[in-house]
Amino acid sequence: MITRIDHIGIACRDLDASIEFYRRAHGFEVVHSEVNEEQGVREAMLRINGTDDGAASYLQLLEPIRDDCAIAKYLEKHGEGVHHIAFGTADVVAATEAATSTGIRALYPAPRRGTSNSSINFLHPKDCHGVLTELVQAADPADAHHS
Ligand code: MC0
């Protein structure tokens, strides 16, 4: 079951410039940053709000660290902007199966590692009316993205 929006992923060319933009425009602060080698990104999580189910919602700013990763390809084709929406769930395998049982393609046969050791899968944008959709299960919902 999906319970919340975990984050909106935004592709950017210059992570530090985008962080500064969101700080100046809206007062958002970075609560976590990391490099995800597998996904080919340097990223920052900006906390937007807390929720009553134990995890908050974030903007996720994503800068590519190599030319062949998904974000680099997206920037080349579309430029900067919203790259994906991530829905939070307590069980990413069950949420993925619920979606694939309706005919939507999952991109991975099993969950992979996401931000802060979360477990993630993606649903193909062509099966989701043009929206790349991520499903994310926090490693520890009470402490999502803070370590
Ligand atoms: C591609 N397409 C998109 C899209 N990316 N549509 C909407 N939103 C996107 N983000 C469309 C293209 O425009 C194209 O449509 C078609 O999908 C095929 O795209 P492509 O450019 O040929 O690229 P592919 O097929 O090689 O790859 C697309 C795919 C890939 C979604 C499968 O990006 C992927 O595997 N994404 C999952 C991983 C990911 O995105 N990692 C970065 C975030 P047309 O009509 O032109 O054919 S990592 C992350 O988010 C982690 C750190 C986390 O949250 O914890």
From TrEMBL:
Pfam families, per database record: Glyoxalase_4 (PF13669)
Enzyme class: isomerase
Domain VOC intervals: 4-138
GO biological process, one term: L-methylmalonyl-CoA metabolic process
Organism of origin: Actinocrinis puniceicyclus
Keyword Metal-binding set for record: yes
A GO MF label: methylmalonyl-CoA epimerase activity
Classification via InterPro entries: Glyas_Bleomycin-R_OHBP_Dase (IPR029068), MeMalonyl-CoA_epimerase (IPR017515), MMCE/EMCE_epimerase (IPR051785), VOC_core (IPR037523)
Name of encoding gene: mce
E.C. designation(s): 5.1.99.1
Protein name (Swiss-Prot/TrEMBL): Methylmalonyl-CoA epimerase
Family recorded in the similarity comment: Belongs to the methylmalonyl-CoA epimerase family.
UniProt keyword terms in alphabetical order: Isomerase, Metal-binding
